[in-house]
Amino acid sequence: MQVSGAQGPSVTSYAYKASLIGSAHRFELTDAGLSWHIAGRSGLWRYDEISAVRLSFRPVSMQQHRFRADLSHTGGGRIRILSTSWQTAALMAPQDNGFRDFIIELHARMAQAGSHAELTAGLGRKTYAAVLAFLAVLTVAMAGLLIRALLIGEFAGALFIIGFAALFAWQVGGFVRRNQPHSYSFDHVPKALLP
Questions:
Q1: 128-150 pLDDT, tens per residue?
Q2: Over the chain, what HEC string results?
Q3: Domain that holds residue 165
Q4: Are residues 112 and 33 in the same domain?
């Protein structure tokens, strides 16, 4: 992230590589609006033309600490901004400070422009409900297996089930907790969805 000097216009920038192939996705917060350059395309969205912002926590196998911002335009376009960047075939590097600063500055500029954008956090309500339903079914199944293992005296199996359940709860619990759907305001950007 870069901020220009005091004499020139204020510009905040952020870039990341969404894949190993292709150029970086670059974004700049200028006085005129959000300037973006993605895969040979570019544009400028005025801050009051951004109709929605959704922040979420989206871990992947290569990077367990990854955040995402989805921006929608009044004209129908969408932009995705990620907090990680591909470095090599085996390395996805976090860009925590740059992403956080860029997103906070974006919200500040949108608020200053009088934006009426819909600000949401987490997953969509239907998706979140489906995740909770799946976890409830999985919990019942694991409890059934645990009870069965204890009844037949298979204590090693019971310990394995308990260990697996604890690891799963630790891995998935953070995802579910952070991605609980809710709305927020420009002056209260959810810290749980920023690195």
A1: 999 899 999 999 999 999 999 99
A2: CCECCCCCCCCEEEEECCCCCCCCEEEEECCCCEEEEECCEEEEECHHHEEEEEEEECCECCECCCEEEEEEECCCCEEEEECEEEEECCEEEECHHHHHHHHHHHHHHHHHCCCCCEEEECCCHHHHHHHHHHHHHHHHHHHHHHHHHHHCCCHHHHHHHHHHHHHHHHHHHHHHHHCCCEECCCCCCCHHHCC
A3: 125-175
A4: yes
